[in-house]
Amino acid sequence: MRISELYKNRFEGDSVSVSGWIRTLRCSKSFGFIELNDGSSFKNLQIVIEEDKLENYSEVSKLSVGSSVSVKGNLEFTPEAKQPFELKASEVEIQGVSAPDYPLQKKRHSFEFLRTIPHLRPRTNSLSAVFRVRSMLAQAIHRYFSEHGFIYVNTPIITGSDCEGAGEMFRLTAGDPNSAEKREFFGKPASLTVSGQLEGEDFAMAFGNIYTFGPTFRAENSNTARHAAEFWMVEPEMAFAGLKEDMDLAEDLLKYLIKFVLSEACDELNFFNSFVDKCLLERLNNVADNSFVRITYTEAVEKLKAAKKEFNFPVEWGIDLQTEHERYLTEEVYKRPVFVTDYPKDIKAFYMRLNDDGKTVAAVDCLVPGVGEIIGGSQREERLSVLEERMEELGLSQEDYKRYLDLRRYGTCKHAGFGLGFERLVMYVTGMQNIRDVIPYPRIVNNLV
Length: 449
Ligand code: 4AD
Ligand code: MG
Hints:
By secondary structure, this protein is α+β, with helices and mostly antiparallel strands. It has helices spanning about 5-10, 55-60, 110-115, 125-145, 195-205, 245-265, 265-275, 280-290, 295-305, 325-335, 385-395, 400-410, 420-430; strands at about 15-25, 30-35, 45-50, 70-75, 85-95, 150, 160, 190, 210-215, 230-240, 295, 340-345, 360-370, 370-380, 415-420.
């Protein structure tokens, strides 16, 4: 039986067995209490052990924190106590004794310290709650798209093309490092993907609505609390859709996911609201009930210029919005998620559809309080000649993107999509401040533990 089920169903008087790891243990000569956790919830189960009921009482009472045990016993209600019930043990089988230098003792450890023990930190309240919410969100994403008729596509991790055209890819090497020929992927240059979008577009041109959900890699040297070298992205792509439909989908998806965790992860969210971010629940409830703001980049720049505050990075039409600007818009001006559309073409990727003004593209970023950019997307350039011209301007080889250009030659159509950064989503719904603490094994600049 999992401990979460006991809390849900309260089998009073029933004989139950549970297995887990000891969080704390207090014992006297004749009786004692164990707080057991099995990872199914961050709630512990209190276990009462008594000398005259257990053959191995003296061994059990000396166990150290972190040891694993399997316990059989009767569940009894304890209306006067802090916990609703406790397990009166009739049998305790010791599975594995924890060495006395176990680093997770009963006290609050800093997130910085926990990052030094990635193999043990999922056993703490905070990180186990984060990773349970991460798992629920992944499942909710698949559920959302499946309910809305999107086909799930697995795009390649090893690729020969640079989706963002920004050259921030990790190159693959293989075989004998001294042989120039073998150093590449079977003689050809190959990299880890930065985005599944280009392949996603292929599939949208066959299935209409698709999504990808997988790992992506960026070699950008950004040592911040929001950038990882390896992160997961959710990328829907829709044929016969433009920027408005793209934003409608993004808003509906985010609201669905927030409502999902509000109802399915109450214990975890209450915990984050108490210990990580006191405004979390208020903010999430507010998002679920209100529409997102939609403004153009030009309007955003005007708002920022009119701000009474000094930014470190001066605002001018043409700049890429910095985190401080994104946070000002979402946290001080609008106090909710904001879509910013129609960015200058010079700061966006080659595949975004050129607007009639010839200066801006049909791009959209979704910015949220606390995190900044959580989604980046666009309507795609479906006109062959405009795309070719843009690629030439940027010096991108048509040979390398032949397949992508083919889509514009064989039944091209209006289409749009976006990429949702999965870790940024987890940060947003948990209130966690550092991307290192929402990834099981973070791969960040200077960090390969
Ligand atoms: O804005 P980006 O770069 O967009 C794309 O890659 C498009 N091809 C997506 C598409 O239209 N299908 O990245 C999308 C999102 C960002 O908004 C951000 O949430 C996340 O991916 N992201 C990162 N998350 C963590 N670490 C990084 N280094 C990230 N770079 C982007
Ligand atoms: Mg972006």
